[in-house]
Each structure stands twice: as structure tokens, then as C-alpha cells.
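Session log. Operator J.P. requested a structure for one protein chain; no other inputs attached. Running the standard single-chain path with C-alpha cell output.
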Amino acid sequence: MGKLAMKLAQELAAERQKNESLTRLLEQRQALLERMRKA
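Structure written below.
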């Protein structure tokens, strides 16, 4: 049980990190589009 719980926690942390980097990419793209529209 302990090993399984640790494995699940690690996978959850990895998923969260992936989501954060995806969100950052989307935000960067939005900012780029805004700048292009204003230019």
C-alpha cells in the first residue's frame, strides 16, 4: 500500500508539472497573438 501510494503521488506530481508547462505555452501564444494584432 505504501509503495503504491508513493507511485500514485509521483504520477500526480508529474501530471501537474505537465499541465503547468502546457498552460505556460498557451499563455505565451496568447501574448504573441495579442502583440501581432496590435502591430
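Operator note: The helical segments are 2-38.
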